[in-house]
Structures are given as structure tokens and as C-alpha cells.
Amino acid sequence: MNRSTLDFLKPMFPVHFSDYSILIINQTTQGNLLQSGYPGVRVINSFEKGLSKSRNLALQNAENKLILLTDDDVEFTPDFDENIVKAFNNGCEDFAAIQFCAEDKERNRLKSYPSKNKALSYLNILSAMSIELVYNKEKILGSKLRFDENFGLGAAFPLGEEHIFLGDLKRAGYKLGFYKEYIVRHSNDKNSDKIPFKKWYETLGSYYKRMFPGSYLLWIFIYFGFNIKQGKLSFFKVPFAFSYFIKGKNSYLQTK
Question: Where does the Glycosyltransferase 2-like domain lie (predicted)?
Fold first, then answer.
């Protein structure tokens, strides 16, 4: 994050940010520390790099029952807090995490969502975004599970940290749900669009091997098939993509 003032918080919230309980994980340097003069806004200046490291530090130090791990470039909807509380009080009290809806800055939905509230399947998890997710602190801390620090921006494999975390929770028997209410606005730019072809498929190889250890090949062929159908991957490039995928899978195995 590397912030030196709290000004970035002003456009994020529907009222002044001091009305909320906020924990900022400011990944910075010794000479650029962030401080807060607001009782409800706490700051941890961290000298480690990596999104998953930041997420884990936030989970460890969160004080409230519900945790929204968000980015610093989002805008919350006017009733985001009411929608979150309503979801967790509407039969979802024992859920470890709930996915909500996001819209772009023009108030259009950011992507397709299920038509009704439901439990999250593994397929649903693969399309979840971190800005849509709210966690139940009691369930998360009780699970002893944390974000895999090999994944996410600033790590060896720069994507998939939230999917892997949700997948770990689901495999451990924790409930995950989708609630059809909007809580956040964000641009529809995708980090994946900025990753070169070779690096993208290498990262996918590590990601699918970590996410689905015994069935990663099935999932990658599903991914290939979908992208070929959508015109995002040509048949000519499939052998190259697959070789990069295997290389990424092997790179992940070397971290274990």
C-alpha cells in the first residue's frame, strides 16, 4: 500500500471513514510510516511484501465479528454495512464467509451472479473476488486456516489467494454462502489482463495444483475448453499453454 496519509479512505465510504472500525495494513518502508489520529482507525505498518501476508496480518489483528478484507481503490455502496449484517443475521450466522455482489463505477453489475442466495460450490469459488467477501472472525480464527502466502500479488504465484483460502475452508467443512446484495463498486479492470501469456499459464499451473491437488488436470482442461470457446485461446497456442502450465505446477511442488 505504501500510504503516508489517510486521504485515500475518503472516497471509499458513504459517510466519513471515522464512523467505521478500520484496520489498515500499510506495507511500507521505515521512512514512510502511516499514522492515524482517529480512535476507530488503526494502522499496522508492515515491512513485509505480499497480499496474502497483508491479509493474514489483518485476520490476526481484527477486532470485530465480521471482517471485510478489501482493496484501497473500491467504493462501498450506501447500505453496504446494513446488507452485510442482514445476511449474517438471516440464517447465515454460522457461515465462515459470504460472497456479495459488486458493481462497476457506472452502477452496472461487475459480472454475472447467481439468481438467488445459495451455498458456494467449488465452481462458484473460482469466480469469487476478494472485494465481494466478508468473513466470520470466530469461524476463521477457529479454523486455524490462513491465506497461502505463496499466492497473491507480491508472491511467487501472483493470483488465486482468495479462491485457495475459500477452497481450504470448504474442504475443512466450513459453510460458505452467496447473498444477492450489492456492497461495493470497483472498476472492471482485471489483473489477469496485465499478466503475459507465459507467466499467466505458469501461474495457473501452480494455482490449479494447489486448489485441486488430485484433479488439477481436469480443471485446467475445463479452463482451456472455456477459453477456446470464448475465443481467448487459439488451438495453435494450446500446446504452449499446457507446457507452461506443467512448468508452473512443478514450480509450486518445489515450494512444498
Answer: 35-111
